[in-house]
Design brief:
Residues 1-11 have a biased composition (Basic and acidic residues). The protein is mostly helical. It contains eleven helices and no strands. α5 (70-93) packs parallel to α9. The chain starts with a helix and ends in a 14-residue tail after the last helix.
């Protein structure tokens, strides 16, 4: 009798552990993380709603419920990355110190972001059919340049140059730093601090005054 009971218990199907149900906010964050990874890996066109839902372990209607579709999810991912990067650059540019040191901090802020948020930067530098509405690399450069204008204008005024050219020089400067960062994203050599030092060397001294072995002067 006891043996039969034991056998019955042993052969009874085991209950599968129930998955913890996510709150709406947690599910949204999970979908953003999944979408961010896939967009960085495959680009906007190469990523499908089916892949996003499968990797997140949800049905497609759940993705539509939170974001209205792939474009909506992509837009939120891009906006978040733009905000994160611009916040770092703006903080660096708004710090006190010699203009050259401020420029060094801004260059390092971009390279730090690339190093710690590689997926995010890959998304920002990719072309996308929805870039016109959500922002993109050109928009990033433009927004960052607007933060640099007042610094350049002050330097131009102090040196007797026309301040009306400051916006143009700001675009040149930020574009140089951002495109160098895009290149460094793949090669990761030389070291981050060395890249920043050489960037500032060219931007601050010009070709005619390049230092042979530039080093960062700030902290």
């Amino acid at each position: 009798m006891m043996g039969r009971v034991t056998d019955d218990v042993a052969t009874r199907p085991r209950a599968t552990p129930s998955r913890v149900r996510m709150t709406g906010k947690q599910r949204r964050e999970q979908l953003l993380d999944v979408g961010r990874a896939l967009f960085a890996e495959r680009g906007y066109d190469g990523t499908s709603i089916e892949e996003i839902s499968a990797r997140a372990g949800v049905s497609k209607p759940v993705v539509y419920e939170h974001f209205g579709g792939k474009e909506g999810l992509y837009a939120v991912v891009v906006d978040r990355e733009m905000e994160l990067l611009l916040d770092r650059i703006t903080t660096a540019l708004g710090s006190a110190g010699h203009p050259r040191v401020i420029l060094e901090r801004a260059a390092l802020a971009l390279l730090d972001y690339i190093e710690t948020s590689t997926d995010g930067f890959r998304i920002l530098v990719r072309d996308s059919p929805v870039a016109h509405s959500t922002g993109g690399f050109a928009s990033l450069i433009s927004d960052a340049a607007s933060q640099v204008e007042h610094i350049l204008a002050a330097q131009f005024k102090a040196r007797g140059f026309a301040t009306k050219h400051a916006p143009m020089y700001a675009q040149m400067l930020v574009g140089m730093v951002a495109l160098t960062g895009q290149w460094w994203l793949e090669v990761r050599s030389p070291k981050k601090a060395d890249v920043a030092a050489h960037l500032v060397n060219l931007a601050w001294n010009g070709l005619s005054g390049l230092e042979h072995k530039p080093r960062l002067t700030g902290d």
